[in-house]
Design brief:
By secondary structure, the protein is mostly helical. 79% of the residues lie in helices and 0% in strands. The chain has one domain. It contains 5 helices and no strands.
């Protein structure tokens, strides 16, 4: 999923028309947007995780096994792809609505 988020962020920066900045600044903007995207996705996942599985989910997050976490989410959130996509659409709307003034 990391590549997908990275590609999404690159496209978002392109849509925003951000150009002419140093590589260092662009890298920082990408990193910040990736973090925002991941936070938004995680918030949507938590909001859609059945309450009965929240404690078990938190334990899995603490263990940090990405594949196991994704598998757990897919098992307990039937529309996980939609939940993820909705988070990214929301981020896109927010980001493109704000200006760099």
């Amino acid at each position: 999923m990391e590549y997908t988020i990275s590609a999404f962020v690159n496209k978002l920066l392109q849509e925003k028309g951000i150009t002419g900045l140093s590589d260092e600044v662009m890298d920082q903007m990408r990193d910040d947007l990736i973090e925002r995207a991941e936070n938004m996705i995680n918030a949507n996942i938590l909001a859609n995780m059945p309450e009965d599985f929240l404690e078990e989910f938190e334990k899995k997050l603490d263990e940090g096994q990405d594949e196991e976490i994704q598998s757990f989410c897919r098992k307990h959130i039937s529309n996980l792809d939609e939940v993820t996509a909705n988070a990214l659409v929301k981020l896109r709307k927010i980001y493109l609505a704000n200006t760099l003034e």
